[in-house]
């Protein structure tokens, strides 16, 4: 297996980026994403970001506190998770609870920013970066609810959305590898584990040096190789499941089409049979009617002195028919 020059960002978070000396890398990434200068005060070890055996290769998260005392959750998810939106909610809620001291007023609730880097299709949408906030709009005037002056002073925030959690979704696989700005340079690295020489985003040059595979010890290199292999195996399994699911779906669709075609053919056959049967019944009815009319003609010829023309007019038939019957009974 051939590896790239740089190690993956999630592996780096597990090992290198938790070190204070490397905070600049995370600060650079967060600054580009949040569009403000982020200064990390500490990495918080809590129940929310303890690594379990189940998450060892699939997921990684880190909780940091910035200079504003805000909590920032960075989570990377490699495998498809149908309930991932609820996981985001759970992680935010747990971070808030863990950092709320007993007896504190609610004004002490920490602002949480959740940054989610996912390597699978999360929801439906073509963009590769989404931002979610909370605000309130009147159902009648559609105007946004604002903080009062006292609330702005208490919370040290200008808008309601700044009080509530802020969520970022980075759908890495949706990125087209065209880095149009400095944030895109980070997304390019997240997707490709590669930093181009011309990149100039905050923290990216530092990442270029620190996150080189060449800097790893032999033991780290072996662990990283195992990590990469597990991700590749899981990706292959997911691809296989997806491929087989599509084959099964295609088989079901083809069978359904075949059954529909068969049903249409049988319906057409039934319609034709019904049409032929109806035609036979019509012909039969015509024959019966003809027979009855002929008997009526015969009776009138036998029992009356009416002329052929009068009989034809009376029974609304062709006079030639009356004459043919007259000849038969003469």
Describe the structure.
The chain is of the alpha/beta class. It has a domain at 9-214. The protein is 50% helix and 11% strand. The chain contains 9 helices and 6 strands. It has helices at 9-15, 23-34, 84-98, 149-155, 182-192, 204-210, 218-303, 308-315, 319-329; strands at residues 40-44, 59-66, 71-77, 112-118, 129-132, 166-171. It has a 6-stranded mixed β-sheet, sandwiched between helices. α3 (84-98) links the parallel β3 and β4 (112-118). α7 runs antiparallel to α8 (308-315), α7 crosses α9 and α8 packs across α9. The longest helix is centred in the last third of the chain and has 86 residues, at 218-303. The protein is elongated and about 130 Å long. It starts with 8 loop residues before the first helix and ends with a helix.
**Coarse shape:** elongated
Strand content: 5-15%
Q: What percent of residues adopt helix (DSSP H or I)? A: 40-55%
Number of DSSP strands?
Answer: 6
What sequence of helices (H) and strands (E) makes up the elements?
A: HHEEEHEEHEHHHHH
Structural class: alpha/beta
Q: Which stretches are low in confidence, meaning pLDDT under 50 for 5 or more residues running?
A: none
Summarize the main sheet.
6 strands, mixed
End-to-end separation in angstroms reads 110 Å
Round the Cα radius of gyration to an integer and report it: 41 Å
Mean pLDDT across all amino acids = 86
Largest sheet, order of strands side by side?
1-2-3-4-6-5
Number of helical segments with 4 or more residues: 9
What oligomeric state best describes the polypeptide chains here? single chain
């Amino acid at each position: 297996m051939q590896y790239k020059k740089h190690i993956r960002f999630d592996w780096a978070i597990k090992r290198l980026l938790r070190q204070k000396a490397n905070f600049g890398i995370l600060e650079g990434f967060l600054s580009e994403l949040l569009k403000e200068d982020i200064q990390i005060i500490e990495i918080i070890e809590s129940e929310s970001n303890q690594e379990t055996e189940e998450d060892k290769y699939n997921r990684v998260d880190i909780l940091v506190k910035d200079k504003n005392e805000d909590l920032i959750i960075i989570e990377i998810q490699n495998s498809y998770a149908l309930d991932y939106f609820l996981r985001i909610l759970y992680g935010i809620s747990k971070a808030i609870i863990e950092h709320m001291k007993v007896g504190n007023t609610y004004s002490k609730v920490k602002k949480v920013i959740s940054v989610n880097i996912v390597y699978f299709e999360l929801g439906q949408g073509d963009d590769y970066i989404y931002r979610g906030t909370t605000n309130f709009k009147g159902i009648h005037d559609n105007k946004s609810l604002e903080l009062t002056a006292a609330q702005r002073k208490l919370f040290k925030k200008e808008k309601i959305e700044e009080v509530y959690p802020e969520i970022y979704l980075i759908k890495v696989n949706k990125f087209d590898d065209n880095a149009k700005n400095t944030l895109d340079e980070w997304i390019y690295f997240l997707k490709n584990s590669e930093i181009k020489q011309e990149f100039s985003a905050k923290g990216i040059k530092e990442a270029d040096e620190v996150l080189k595979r060449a800097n790893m010890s032999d033991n780290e290199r072996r662990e990283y190789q195992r990590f990469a292999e597990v991700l590749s195996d899981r990706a292959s399994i997911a691809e296989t499941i997806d491929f087989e699911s599509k084959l099964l779906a295609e088989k079901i669709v083809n069978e359904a089409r075949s059954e529909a075609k068969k049903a249409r053919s049988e319906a057409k056959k039934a319609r034709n049979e019904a049409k032929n049967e109806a035609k036979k019944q019509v012909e039969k009815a015509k024959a019966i009617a003809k027979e009855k009319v002929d008997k009526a003609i015969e009776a009138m010829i036998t029992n009356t002195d009416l002329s052929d023309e009068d009989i034809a007019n009376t029974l609304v038939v062709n006079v030639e028919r009356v004459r043919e019957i007259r000849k038969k009974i003469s």
